[in-house]
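Case study 2.
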Amino acid sequence: MEIKDIKEKSSKYLFQNYGRADLAFESGEGCILHGYDGKDYLDLVAGIAVNALGYAHPDWVSAVQKQAARAAHISNLYLIKEQADLAEKIASVTPGELNRTLFVNSGAEANEAALKTAVRYTGRGKILSALDGFHGRTSASLGATGQEKYRKSFEPLISDSYGYFEFGNCEQVKSMVGKDTAAVLVEPVQGESGVRIASAEFFRTVRDVCSDNGALMICDEVQTGLGRTGQWYGIENYGVVPDMITMAKALGGGLPVGALSSTDEISSVMVPGTHGTTFGGNPMVCAAGCAVIDVMKRDGLIEHSRETGAKWIRDLKMIDSPDIREIRGLGLMIGIEMNSSENALRIQKYCRDNGVLINVCHGSTLRLIPPLILTDAQKDTFTALLKECL
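Prediction:
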């Protein structure tokens, strides 16, 4: 099938709610996607930070194939061995005492579950989150997303329970958190707003203010979790342990799974009937998740992300160009803020024309979120293309 045929069928039968490039991919291997146009592409987007092990990783493929041959889905009406296995593995890498996990199907659902848990645990109704954050597109997670462009025209679905502070502003957080606050929901790195990083002082302030007021600190690790920032979880870069962590994207290695991790005490309020999902944590996605964590541990991908990302940021900062405003990042989550959206899109097109896929977010930031198996040679391919284009 040719791309024009795929495009025609998509335009005829699909909702037109995505702005898609005229590209389609037949298969992938490692960090490379094979296009229907007959070309190979180095993928530095990884399905938006999903394909942490790249494409067709043999251990992941084997785990999924074996589980598919046994049982892809079993209801949560019954015990599920693979679910218990993955929860144990998650507990082995989460900070503090976050050793209880609830499985769902996506990052947005994980944040919904976290907000419901916080409201039920505290008995309070106020949720605070950061301006320019992104927490999902379902009702409660959309309400917590501090970007008007996402909430516009969906206001009837959003309550007045939400308040927004400036990301990184310690004094604002102090002034807003009170005895009516159920939770503060925050990303360790703001991904969709251009890979924005706050200080360790800010995250310590959030932790302390929540503790002082009996509110819960929820870290949205949907994009930053599982090695992306060079730690298992992004919040570990700041030496802070939250009350809850939400995750998704990398966890399934390509299959849809999300999770909420918390403590014994906090999780105990979610008794039968308070929350549930038909597909959440089915054997197929949990087998995939187990393979992801096992490979990350065995192959040292957390350390690889940290070291490769640090070298890449150093290389990028050596590029002398008036078109680059700032380079930000942790691990293999890097943002290159350009001086205009036009320049960002020009570079994206130049890279794509030369077989490299990158993402532009928040208007003018080139976002690099490749598979965690990225090699030095592959990162250097992009750096060379960027220099050429500039």
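The chain has a mean pLDDT of 96.
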